[in-house]
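User: Fold this; tokens only.

Assistant: Input:
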Amino acid sequence: MKSDFRKAVESYKRVLIFGTGDRARQEYKFAKRRGLNIPFFIVSGEIEYPEEFCGLEVKRINEVDISDKEKSAVIIGRYVGNNTETRLLLSQSGFKNILNGATQLYTSLNEKQRREADNVLHMSARMIDSSNYFKEILVPNVKIYYSTSSKNRHVARKRWDSEFCCPVQSGAAMTNIQLSENRDDQGENISEKGDYYNELTVGYWAWKNDIIHDYIGLFQYSRGLDISDSLIHEYCNGKAEVILPIPYYWEWSIASIAYYEEEPEIISEAIYKVSPEYYDVMSEYFRGHLFMRSNLIIAQRNCYCAYYKWMFSVFDEIEKILNRNDFWKERITAYMGEHLFNIYFIKHKNDYRIFFAGVKDML
């Protein structure tokens, strides 16, 4: 069964994208790679919006011609809940062909895809049952850091409801706004690179400065692993060495859905130079469809530190490539970090006691 986006690729030559945010930009890049004609972006007009976006005109939905409403495909370049309200708004405004975009083509694993994931990650026997109750015996020495940011003040003050979670302000060196007592510009840090590394500045800060916890974790301000404190008590007392998110299955290859299309080539060049033993795993990963999102992890200190040491050895080379080609873009190393995350743990699937948990969105 073909996805909505694939139908758009094959059936429509003219595509409008609803939204002017980060997801809309990603939809635009993905559509352009596949030769689709995007004449302009559309917005509801209920809030302030730019006159141009990605170099194209932005129109209110009531300014769009009837012909475009009836004959063009509309890709929803935002994600709020399941987009029901957005679909209703567009439908009531006369748009006929309303489609979810490429960035929404990931799904939970079906039976066939789960077998594929088991082959890639040896996952089936190591799933954490989120409904399981574990009686507290020992309090594990765990700290899960979740990133907050002055750019996300509307949600950054929310707290993960866990005795083990602790907020750390990411990119703190670049703002006078203080959101947390814990900041990623304390101690050894890369806080000034927050525009490129995002939550990974917090991950780096934990790697370099947390010397007291047996387990270290990283969540985002709005997304983390779906694991209760009782399960942390069970799995972080030696049972698990690493806890990772259950992968999603993408319809397109991982290489084709990269936010910046240059990412696979840059990563390939860097890994070939500094860690050639990862090259075959990397190549297979980019051809595949399984993707663990958002750099979410809880791991024993030695595992966490080994992973970050490797990742930033690759980033050292990636930064040289970006400098050489003058290709520094917003969040670029954060996006590439997600790929390195997958590559590293696929490579080491037999070296650690890895367990898998679902992903929970706070928003």
